[in-house]
Amino acid sequence: MSLLDSLFGKKEKSVLGVDIGSSSLKVVQLRKEKGKAVLETYGELALGPYGGSEVGQATNLSAEQITETLKDLLREAKVTTKNCAVSIPFARSLLTLVELPYRADPKEQKTVIELEARKYIPVPMSEVQLDWFIVPSAGSPTEKASASAGKTVEVLLVAVHNDEISLLQKVIDGAELHSTFYEIEIFSTIRAVVDEPVKPVMVIDVGAASTKAYVIEHGVVALSHSIATGSQDITRAIAISGNFSIAQAEALKKKEGLAGDDTLGSPELVFSRIFSEVRRVLIQYETAHQKSVTSIIFTGGGGVTKELGIYAKKTFSIDVRIADPFLKTEAPAFMRPVLEGIGPEFAVAVGLALRKLGET
């Protein structure tokens, strides 16, 4: 990190992406130079040790414990800016795609959406922050304008409980940072790793406690599904099969992973469970929408499992790649192999910083 500092010298206006995950905190600091996003520093700290558990394991810490971890991370990564954006965990939010009556007048459409949203939010509207996006239609504006009264539109409803926002705000205030927005992690990930503007793409986020599968179409989440198996299960499987400690297994996952010897065969069993569910979701989407998903992108902590891309390509018959969000940043060439290796874990933090950079 200090090497990056010395290379870039005096800093211009910088921004920070803060990803508060279930097992670790990640930060990425960028600055804009000649219209490009320049990487200044980045860092990660496991939350487990702050809550009395192992590295790589999901935790449920208090705001005070998360704040303590974040302050340590900011110091270790030599972060120099207070200006940040913060992720909201997918598990703490509600995303649902619904069909609602179409209105040609934007104000009327807004009223319809806000009224209808009450049917899909399981708590009083006063307890959540609500946002929504109209999914682009294949129909032309003229066709929409002349549509009958029975015309409908697909709307992605997004709701986050006020308590989650309050917790995050407490953490950010405690770390003496200033955040102008909070964003559900999948939207940050899309910005960092999805370049296909129209055709359906699946993002598989292998988090610590669970794996999230999303189908992205027209830049919008067309389908989301959570699988109750994650990267901590891969680590535990390696630990049990090889009689390793959790710490040793976590290191082996990144160093050898799916390329290890027979004693590490257990990661394949975990990934086969995840992939089986992913295939089911793929078929469900393709059958319902009569269109094919064109590629799969892996992100998250489990995405750094060695040889995951090669293993996944044997399983799926479509294009598969491991996310490398740092490709959207300028960094020294000798850093690229390191950044490529850790990229899947930093997709959210990079995506947050890129949006924040757009505000400067």
Characterise the protein shown here.
Helix 7 packs across helix 8. This protein folds into two domains: 2-91 and 163-357, ATPase, nucleotide binding domain (Nucleotidyltransferase, domain 5, 2-Layer Sandwich), CATH 3.30.420; 92-160, Dna Ligase, domain 1. The chain is α/β, with parallel strands linked by helices and 360 residues long. Helices cover 36% and strands 27% of the residues.
Give the topology:
Layout: H1 2-8, E1 14-20, E2 24-33, E3 36-46, H2 63-76, E4 83-88, E5 93-101, H3 106-116, E6 128-134, H4 141-145, E7 152-161, H5 162-174, E8 178-184, H6 185-193, E9 201-206, E10 211-217, E11 220-227, H7 231-242, H8 246-255, H9 266-289, E12 295-299, H10 308-315, E13 319-322, H11 336-342, H12 347-357
Helix pairs in contact: 2-5, 6-12, 7-8, 7-9
